[in-house]
Design brief:
Helix content is 50%, strand content 6%. It has 13 helices and five strands. The strands form two sheets. It has a three-stranded parallel β-sheet. Helix 2 packs across helix 13, helix 7 packs across helix 8 and helix 10 packs across helix 12. The chain binds adenosine-5'-triphosphate and magnesium ion. Adenosine-5'-triphosphate binds next to strand 1 and helix 1. Adenosine-5'-triphosphate (ATP) binds next to strand 1 and helix 1.
Length: 353
């Protein structure tokens, strides 16, 4: 199954992504520790779920250790100040647990609470050039969508910070969406150059892409928390129907799966197929000449049916904010232990104090 093409065409790395790419792990076999994360900029959406969250849960159930970073410092890459940070961080935990992450075995932490992790940014920044940072296609896309008038230094350097998120715990597998591939390349470069310069300490983490590495939003651009085009995991049936009714499609009444030429239609077919564990071509054939309205009805039913249990669990868990806070508290303590150990190793390797 292939995902719809990025209509803005900004992620050039994606064109070369495939099983032969050493950046991308074909399976979880041979890997040990998984790290991935999300910005606390709003509730998680269907793109997160099918792009990475479902994989996180599956990897955890296969016995891999799961670390999740609530990337709070990344919020201020493109915002003047973080908004309702604590509440949003807790809501991410709520989404994780509702999706099936086992809090007893996962380490869920906020990177601002782990000083030793952040300190790794300094030596890591010395390992990449300004030219390398400037040509990152995801950063360019995010700058294009930013509401800020000036681009901050953090915007250009956050992929290196993200390398610290991965390397502090020596994660070797990273279930992410396609937009993260350039950042994974930065992390691998940092690991390789550090190892060459100071002696081998870090693994080169690999990405794990899902069947939906780039789910589109209702405007047929990347579904994103910040772009007003997302259907959140916690949305109810009516809200889902309203959002999907407004999704961008095209006037051709004959429904066909053609991600390159018909991104909006193909994305709704993919979404339906993911929810029903089917092939999007098959869904298209069933709808045939039914037009976009029939497609939207089918997609709405599929999403509401698939997410019913998750939404019910989410509503139950939402009643206990103490649990959500405790999960972060425990995760932060564990992440600090790991980060302190790694920073001590880095100091020894570099001969610093
Ligand atoms: P924001 O708009 O605030 O940047 P976002 O929706 O892009 O939010 P992130 O927190 O930046 O979400 O991304 C978290 C993870 O989810 C990353 O691994 C990213 O690749 C993945 N992801 C985000 N959006 C999608 C999408 N539309 N399709 C597939 N994966 C996605
Ligand atoms: Mg993002």
């Amino acid at each position: 199954m292939t995902a719809p093409a990025e209509p803005t065409g900004t992620d050039t790395t994606a064109a070369t992504a495939g099983p032969a790419n050493p950046l991308i792990a074909p399976t979880a076999a041979g890997h040990r520790r998984v790290l991935t994360g999300d910005r606390p900029t709003g509730p998680l959406h269907l793109g997160h779920y099918f792009g990475t969250l479902r994989n996180r849960v599956q990897l955890q159930s296969q016995g891999l250790e799961l670390m999740i970073v609530v990337a709070d410092y990344q919020v201020i890459t493109d915002r003047d100040r973080p908004d309702r940070l604590a509440e949003r961080a807790e809501n991410l935990v709520l989404d994780y647990l509702a999706a099936g992450v086992d809090p007893g075995r996962a380490t869920i932490f906020t990177h601002s609470a782990v000083p030793a992790l952040n300190q790794l940014l300094l030596p890591f920044l010395s390992l990449v050039s300004v030219a390398e940072l400037s040509r990152n296609p995801t950063v360019k896309d995010e700058i294009a969508h930013s509401r800020q008038s000036a681009v901050s230094g953090l915007m250009f350097t956050y992929p290196v910070h993200q390398a610290a998120d991965l390397l502090f715990c020596k994660a070797d597998l990273v279930p992410v969406g396609q937009d993260q591939l350039p950042h994974l390349e930065v992390a691998r470069t940092v690991a390789r150059r550090f190892n060459d310069r100071y002696g081998t300490l870090f693994p080169e983490p690999q990405a794990l892409l899902s069947d939906a590495p780039l789910l589109l939003g209702t405007d047929a651009g990347k579904m994103s928390k910040s772009r007003g085009n997302a259907i959140s995991l916690g949305a109810d049936g009516d809200e889902t129907a309203r959002m999907l009714r407004g999704a961008v499609t095209d006037p051709d009444r004959h429904i066909a799966y053609d991600p390159e030429h018909r991104p909006g239609v193909s994305n709704l077919l993919l979404l339906t197929a993911l929810c029903q564990d089917r092939d999007p071509h098959q869904v298209a054939e069933e709808i045939g000449a039914g037009g976009a309205a029939a497609l939207k009805r089918t997609a709405t039913e599929a999403v509401n049916e698939y997410f019913r249990p998750l939404r019910a669990r989410r509503a139950e868990l939402a009643a206990d904010r103490t649990l959500l806070r405790e999960v972060l508290h425990t995760g932060n303590a564990r992440a600090n232990e790991i980060a302190n150990r790694t920073l001590a190793e880095v100091r020894t390797a570099m001969g610093t104090f």
